[in-house]
Amino acid sequence: MKLFLPAQIEVDGVASRAHLLNVSLSGALVHSSQAPAPRTGLSIICAGLARAALVQWADKQRFGVTFMVALNDLELHKVLSAGGAKAAAS
Fold first, then answer.
1. In total, how many domains does the chain have?
2. Which of 52, 59, 71, 72 is in the most buried spot, having the most CB atoms within 10 Å?
3. In a domain, 25, yes or no
4. What distance in Å separates the CA atoms of residue 27 and residue 53, rounded to the nearest whole number?
5. Is position 59 within any domain?
6. How far apart are alpha carbons 5 and 87 in whole angstroms?
7. How far is 2 from 79, CA to CA, in rounded Å?
8. Is 15 contained in some domain?
9. What are the angstrom distances between the C-alpha of 75 and each of 15, 27, 40, 82, 90?
10. Residue 63's domain is classified under what CATH number?
């Protein structure tokens, strides 16, 4: 589901602003001022939820992550609702 949802990422205890551009049960596409390197572990905080994640790829200011523990349907709905998405979660 495409979004532009404010979020925070934390890498090695350092927090920075980010936006979720896309999110699914298993991961997300993230935009930030500087993308962490692939295989970097981080935390994403968004819509009142926090998730540990691993960077799979990075390109300039965008990067893809997989969540260490997948979101459940209710958590995904909460994130999508915070982003104003109206489509059903899949």
1. 1
2. 71
3. yes
4. 8
5. yes
6. 15
7. 11
8. yes
9. 22, 12, 23, 11, 12
10. 2.40.10.220
